[in-house]
Amino acid sequence: MSGPYTLRVAEDPADREACFAVRKEVFVVEQGVDEDIEYDTYDAVAVHVLAVRADGVPLGTGRLLHGPAAAAKTGGDPAVGSLGRLAVTQEARGLGVGAALVRAIEDAARARGLAAVDLHAQTHALGFYERLGYEAYGPEFPDAGIPHRAMRRAL
Fold it and tell me: What positions does the domain N-acetyltransferase occupy (predicted)?
């Protein structure tokens, strides 16, 4: 991979489509998640963050749910946001893109007055999130046929 990358909130339709394309590549194609469950009604109200290479190629994405959209995922606590759909393309893994996306999503949560961020981590990614200050809680559970654990980080 050549060149640095930048992060931005995906506010225009082209950026949103780039976020969805990364999710399709990582979750649907690579991990076999059913496309019908990858995209949901929360996408319309989420804050989407996009990482792009200097030449505009999308490298990663993630989203923040807050307010009523996050309630179902966070136990109903309005002070807790929900980080989800974090995906980094194969070419960008190991370059810090995932960690930068998490930090950008946390910044978006802070800007909205949230006190903590929850997420549902695939179990193979627990160490990644632990290094970023997240703590697992509760039992392992399946999501889209993939083992997950709930995690939280106070902001």
Answer: 5-155
Q: d(Cα 151, Cα 135) in Å, to the nearest integer?
A: 5
What is the architecture, at CATH level 2, of domain 5-114? 3-Layer(aba) Sandwich (3.40)
**pLDDT(12) > 80:** yes
Q: Could you state, in order of their start, the residue ranges of all structural domains in the chain?
A: 5-114
The residue ranges of DSSP E strands in 57-134, in sequence order, are: 58-65, 80-88, 116-122
d(CA 63, CA 87): 10
* Other CB atoms within 10 Å distance of the CB of residue 151: 22
**How far, in Å, CA of 65 to CA of 44, rounded?**
10
C-alpha–C-alpha distance, residues 6 and 140, integer Å: 34
pLDDT at 139: 96
Residue 70's pLDDT is: 83
Q: With 0-12 CB in 10 A as exposed, 13-18 as middle and 19+ as buried, what is 119?
A: buried
> What CA–CA distance (Å, rounded) separates 154 from 131?
14
Sign of CA dihedral 42, 59, 37, 39: positive
